[in-house]
Design brief:
Blueprint lengths: L8 H15 L2 H11 L4 H24 L6 H22 L5 H8 L3 H5 L4 H20 L7 H25 L1 H10 L10 H13 L16 E2 L1 H4 L5 E8 L27 E7 L5 H10 L8 H5 L4 H7 L3 E6 L13 E3 L22 H6 L5 E6 L33 H31 L3 E8 L4 E2 L5 E2 L13 E8 L1 H7 L3 H10 L1 E3 L1 H10 L2 E2 L26
Parallel strand pairs: 2-6, 2-7, 3-11, 4-5, 4-6
Antiparallel strand pairs: 1-12, 3-10, 7-10, 8-9
């Protein structure tokens, strides 16, 4: 029987490094070539030096761990991790950082299952499992441990020296390429995943105290609001992956908001932006009161938020969720999860957003002291846009009937996405009808809608969302934000609708405004309240609004 060819630990380290750099980083190299656009011999030499530097760096790292019972499992894990990350970088233009890791780890099984396509499985098998099997089956010629350790140190030092010489020789090229393309290293596998996992681990909520500190404990409702005979209920709708550019209310050529545009008193803020580019970051930020500039997920997890302040002042609060959870925002708050019905293995049965409206009027009428209901939508969550809408709302054709967006044309992807916006228009319009009915039964009612973030639909080769905010295109941060209130609520709040219409068309808004606007709606006095961030403050008669409590 023929003997299998054995390799040395050094050869396995080098071959693994070459495969990862050259075989699993095609998306990274396409970005490098696009940025450098090599035309001269010097530029092509830089590309070669860049590749050699990466191979040397990976080889140095692997050489340190080139020990019996360690090298094979480590090399196998790196190849599988690289293959998995490379698929998403190549297919969707995903940039992998700590926020993306958080988003992945906090995604439910149903959403994850949408990525399990035949192309995904085929890609992972061919680029991940087959090479991993070869590594595991390859015999290694091990030398005595002292010689193995000395060889590892020599290879690691030599590889590191080669990498340093190449970097210094082409320093200007490296600095220019990385400085002008700040997201480049977020597409380099597996280093992007390893760094992101490390940052996520150091900042994750596991290291934060379980009991949040009190926040806004000076809050109290204005006596005049308490004296009103009618309760005030505000419904805050947290949209999902809706981008402003595809709302006809904001100038989109297609009629994606036929019902909302016909409703009297609708206010659509045309210049609103999100705190983040993924749900796990944006949703806590929306309710935190910390502000986008200072916000971090661990900081939000350490303290109470807007919902707790409302509840402390005697208001009823309810969170209804048709998504992957409230990301810790509704901790200690009455909540309902509507999409927990299970389907086949690893698949959650899709629940359309109209489920959020089931029995809603009764819940509004039951809030005899007033309060807020949060509706967390599944909205336009991709890549399976076609799963977000009932068949009757698939108006724009042809559609993309796959989670594998590379199988679809840009027209099909946009049509499917626009159908989700059309359905959101329907759900919000039905919600307003429910609110109008509650208004006739003695409740002052208002609605605020804001998406958590936007979405890329192929612009600049990017799909979905989750880019680091500093690098994200406007499609992922420019969001729709819509306000509506019954006539009774408008009178109660003392707002000038003409002023608000002008404000909606011109004012720059963001998630930072939500915290202060809600405090203003309920006339809650607290030192945390900033009237400059209350969207309604400027348009109240005489600027009448709650004042900050004394420090």
């Amino acid at each position: 029987m023929a003997r299998r060819i054995a390799v040395t630990p050094g050869q396995l380290c080098l071959l693994t490094s070459l495969f990862i750099v050259a075989g699993l980083n095609s998306a990274f190299w396409m970005r490098v070539l696009t940025d450098v656009h090599p035309a001269t011999m010097a530029e092509w030499l830089f590309i070669a030096a860049f590749a050699a530097t990466l191979v040397a760096a990976f080889n140095a790292a692997l050489s340190i761990a080139a020990l019996p019972y360690v090298l094979k499992p480590l090399a196998t894990a790196l190849v599988l991790l690289s293959a998995l990350a490379a698929y998403f970088v190549q297919e969707f233009g995903t940039a992998i950082d700590a926020n993306m890791v958080r988003n992945v780890l906090e995604t439910n099984a149903g959403e994850s299952a949408e990525f399990l396509t035949a192309q995904f499985l085929g890609s992972i098998i061919l680029s991940g499992f087959v090479p991993a099997a070869i590594i595991l089956l390859a015999p290694i010629r091990w030398r005595p441990l002292p010689q193995t350790l000395s060889s590892n140190v020599v290879r690691a030092l030599l590889s590191s020296a080669i990498a340093m010489v190449l970097i210094l020789s082409f320093y200007a090229n490296f600095a220019s390429t990385i400085r002008t393309n700040r997201g480049l290293l977020l597409t380099l596998v597996p280093s992007n995943v390893i760094v992101a996992l490390g940052k996520y681990q150091t900042s994750r909520e596991f290291h934060v105290q379980k009991t949040p500190t009190s926040f806004g404990d000076d809050a109290r409702r204005d006596e005049a609001s308490l004296a009103s005979a009618r309760p005030l209920v505000n419904v805050l709708v947290v949209g999902e992956t809706a981008r402003s550019a595809n709302f006809s209310l904001n100038g989109y050529a297609r009629e994606t908001n036929p019902r909302l545009s016909s409703i009297d008193g609708i206010l659509s803020l045309k210049h609103a932006s999100s705190c983040g580019t993924d749900t796990a970051h944006s949703v806590p930020c929306m309710f935190s009161g910390i502000g986008q500039d200072k916000f971090t997920v661990p900081a939000a997890a350490q303290q109470e938020n807007l919902l707790h302040i409302l509840e402390r002042t005697g208001l009823d609060v309810l969170w209804r969720d048709n998504q992957s959870g409230c990301k810790g925002v509704c901790r200690g708050i009455l909540s309902e999860q509507l999409n927990k019905r299970r389907g086949r293995l690893f698949e959650e049965v899709a629940t359309y957003d109209e489920a959020l409206l089931d029995g809603l009027e009764d819940k509004i009428l039951a809030m005899q002291h007033g309060g807020m209901i949060v509706l967390h939508m599944i909205g336009s969550h991709g890549p399976a846009y076609f799963k977000r809408t009932p068949p009757a709302f698939a108006r724009f054709q042809p559609t993309c009937e796959s989670s594998q967006l590379s199988r679809c044309t840009t027209e099909q992807i946009v049509n499917s996405y626009d159908n989700t916006i059309l359905y959101t228009d329907h759900v919000l319009s039905e919600l307003i009808e429910i609110l109008r009915s509650a208004d006739t039964k003695g409740v002052d009612v208002a609605m605020i809608y804001a998406s958590d973030h936007g979405e890329s639909l192929g612009e600049k080769g990017l799909y979905l969302h989750g880019m680091p905010r500093a690098l994200a295109p406007k499609e992922q941060t420019h969001i729709p934000m819509i306000l509506w209130a019954s006539h009774a609520a408008q009178a109660r709040l003392g707002v000038d609708m003409e002023c608000l219409q002008e404000l909606a068309a011109t004012k720059t808004a963001s998630h930072d405004n939500l915290f202060h606007t809600v405090l203003g709606v309920f006339a809650i006095r607290t030192r945390l309240y900033d009237p400059r961030l209350d969207l309604l403050h400027r348009c109240r008669a005489g600027h009448v609004s709650p004042q900050k409590s004394p420090m």
